Amino acid sequence: MDVILIPGFWLDASSWARVTPVLDETGHHIRPITLPGLESRDADRSGIGLADWIRAVVDLVDESEGPVVLVGHSGGGTVAHGVVDARPDRIAKVVYVDAGPSGDGEPINAELPVVGDEVPLPDWSVFEDADLVDLDPALRAEFERVAIPIPAAVASDPLKLADERRYAVPVTIIACEFPSQVLVEAIAAGQPWIGELARIEHVDYVDLPTGHWPQFTKPTQLGQAIAAALPVV
């Protein structure tokens, strides 16, 4: 089964490099990907929006011979949910890494600082303390070396959803910044911000306490958590 690893903002396929060795042992076909406009720092990012990122992953799903598992980190989780909406009959499962499904009409993050037609990795002061747990100076420097600006429209475009069959696709949430119990309690309280996740029929939760980038801070443990969520070959 193909397992498509969708990176979050500012990251390409190489960001999964410390995670994939664990996943390769599962017997699945592991496919870390680079989304349009992130091929290099010099790539043309003009005119690329959220729909283009979703379409790029949908094309990979269409190329696959059987059911597909999607793994989405951060903003890549919104991309994954858009793909589920487009191909609900082709997706066996979605694993969200410190992420979750966005609702119809919601952008990934329209508040990030835009420079021209792109969003570069902002200063670390933009992020919450919880984002940066375990991301020590060496890891921050590594992140800065590999970070690639994202197309500005990807962050601000509203997600468009139409097929309610997406709610039948099972999900695993790997919670990093805060415990999964926070999500469970928010669903129980009917909080609007978690309404899309609340409608999904089957959700499992895994706690992996660290910051927002576990592929840097706890890559082996992240690989193990993803592997445990995958269907058995």
Sum up the structure in keywords:
alpha/beta; six-stranded parallel sheet; Rossmann fold; two-stranded antiparallel sheet
Q: Your description of this structure?
A:
The chain is of the alpha/beta class and 233 residues long. Helix 3 (75-86) links the parallel strand 3 and strand 4. It has a single domain (2-229), classed as Rossmann fold (3-Layer(aba) Sandwich). The model has no long low-confidence stretch (mean pLDDT 97). The longest helix has 14 residues, at 50-63. Strands 2-1-3-4-7-8 form a 6-stranded parallel β-sheet, with helices on both faces. The chain is built from 9 helices and 8 strands. One of its GO terms (molecular function) is hydrolase activity. This is Alpha/beta hydrolase. It comes from Agromyces protaetiae. Pfam families: Abhydrolase_6.
